[in-house]
Amino acid sequence: MTTQSKGGTRRKKGTSISSDPHTVSAPVTDSGDCQAMADRLQQLEMDLNVLPTPIMEIDTDFSVTFMNPAGAAVVGKTPDEVIGEKCYDLFKTPHCKTEKCACGQAMRRDS
């Protein structure tokens, strides 16, 4: 399930961001902490959305969970249109669904 943030970007429900921009943490229960994390997440999404570099986040099934506008423009869609789509259906490179897939390699290496 995804949720819509104030910045217009959709993200998997139940994920939150710590003060470290590279760490996704478990949901918190304190409402003040929740608001601080929600604010931080919104700021990070806004930062990613203005970058001219395509940025994509996928889950272990290769479903897109985040894509900034620059990334969505590469495939001729909006960020909302690509959420839930398989990255290999969007990009259709010769490496998709093979051992040469860079995303698959990163998941195997980092798991």
**Parts with pLDDT < 50 across at least 5 consecutive residues:** 1-9, 13-22
Mean pLDDT: 83
Beta-strand segment tally: 6
| Individual helix count | 5
- Global Rg: 15 Å
SSE series: EEEEHEEHHHH
Report the end-to-end length measured between terminal Cα atoms: 23 Å
Strand content: 15-25%
**Which percent range fits the helix content?**
25-40%
Query: Biggest β-sheet: count, sense, barrel?
Result: 2 strands, antiparallel
Description of the structure:
- This protein is of the alpha+beta class.
- It is 40% helix and 15% strand.
- The protein has 5 helices and 6 strands.
- The strands form 3 sheets. Strands 1-2 form a two-stranded antiparallel sheet. Strands 3-4 form a two-stranded antiparallel ribbon.
- Strand 1 and strand 2 form a beta hairpin.
Short structural description:
This protein has 111 residues and is an alpha+beta fold. It contains five helices and six strands.
